[in-house]
Amino acid sequence: MSILEIKNLSIEFGGLKAVDDFNLSLEEGEIIAIIGPNGAGKTTIFNMLTGIYAPTKGSIELNGESLLGLKPYQFAQKGIARTFQNIRLFAASTVIDNVKMAYTHQCKESFFECIFRTPKMVEEERKIDERAMDLLKAFDLESKADILAKNLPYGAQRRLEIVRALMLEPKILLLDEPVAGMITTELDDMAKMVRELRDKLGLTVILIEHHMNFVMPIADRIKVLNFGETIAEGSADEVQNNPDVIAAYLGGGYKNVITNA
Amino acid sequence: MKPLIRKLLPILGVVALYYLIMYLKSIKVMNPYHIQVLMFAGVNIMMTISLNIVNGFTGQFCIGHAGFMSLGAYGASIVTTMIFGGFSVAPNLRIPVFLLGLLAGGLVAGAVGLLIGIPTLKLKGDYLAIVTLAFGEIVRATLRLIEPIGAARGMIGIPPYTNFAWVLFFVVLTLIVARNFIYSKHGRACIAIRDNEIAADAMGINTTKYKIISFVFAAFIAGVAGGLYAHIMSFIQPDTFSFVKSSDLLVYLYAGGTGSLTGSVLGGLLLTVLPEALRTFGNLVNWRIVIYAVTLVIIMLYRPLGLCGGKELPLLKINRKHLYEKSIFSKKSVHPSETPN
Question: Membrane-spanning residues where (chain B) (predicted)?
Answer without folding.
Answer: 7-27, 33-54, 66-89, 95-115, 127-146, 158-178, 212-232, 252-273, 285-305
